[in-house]
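Consider the following input, taken from an annotated entry for S-adenosyl-L-methionine-dependent methyltransferase (Podospora fimiseda).
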Amino acid sequence: MSSSDSPLTILNTLIFPLKFIFLSLTYLPRALLLTFPSSLSTLQSAWFSLFWSHVGPLVRESASPSVIPLLSGLITRGSLKPTPVHPAISGTVLELGPGSGQWTSTLSRFSSNITKILGVEPNTGIHPLLRSQIKKNNLEDKYTIVPCGVEDLASSGKVEKESVDSIMTVLCLCSIPEPQKNIKELYTYLKPGGRWYVYEHVKQGPEAPRWLAIYQSVLNLIWPHFIGGCEMCRDTPKWLKEAGPWGDIDLSRPEKSVWYETMPNVIGVLTK
Ligand SMILES: C[S@@+](CC[C@H](N)C(=O)[O-])C[C@H]1O[C@@H](n2cnc3c(N)ncnc32)[C@H](O)[C@@H]1O
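Applying the prediction step yields:
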């Protein structure tokens, strides 16, 4: 970890979640205008769709240097290797929470090794954006949108247990309900030998300064209300490791992490 960053960089990183909340707020009036007098859940769905249509591409830009090598199998113990350490994403792929389809262009790079993609996305308000990305990236004959949350996947009957070669979760395990239970449930969809590609933001680890962990918990009191239910303080690595028996767990903080991150990430591949 670097300790040479300027106070301004540190300050900017610390206030980043507040700026993000403010940015999200600016989309609320338009969402209200579009959905009034519909239900609160319709408003929340429209608000997140509007917000993510703007923010999604920015998030992709900053996460691409991590996510593209991850899906290529080039990441191990949080660092980039010149040759693959894991197989690239392939076979039947379950993409959880694809949102506006920011990773469809990346998935299309692996198209020749992908049989089909099931995009489990409950926010129907964002489906038109997702569909346009699927079309733009020539994935129409491979990509199926499953219009439900992970918690309803079993009852939807759309995905068989032990039928999935690759699960992909990019910045979405923070948003699902009952994460511990639903991560366990997702594990059951993987074939033996199947791989789970993970890039998520998580709660501060024991190495973080105490004040930073407290700051993250305080931010988390308001954050989910503005960012589509996203939670900042989830122990996702623990729940992933405990989801079931794994053949191999290669999940770490990215090599270039800095100590003052308010939203530390984990990255890696778990193999069943
Ligand atoms: C922060 S966004 C990330 C979207 C996308 N993965 C990306 O990187 O741009 C989180 C996504 O998880 C989705 N989500 C929320 N609840 C979910 C659930 N119960 N099951 C599956 N996805 C869910 C949201 O609708 C949203 O699209």
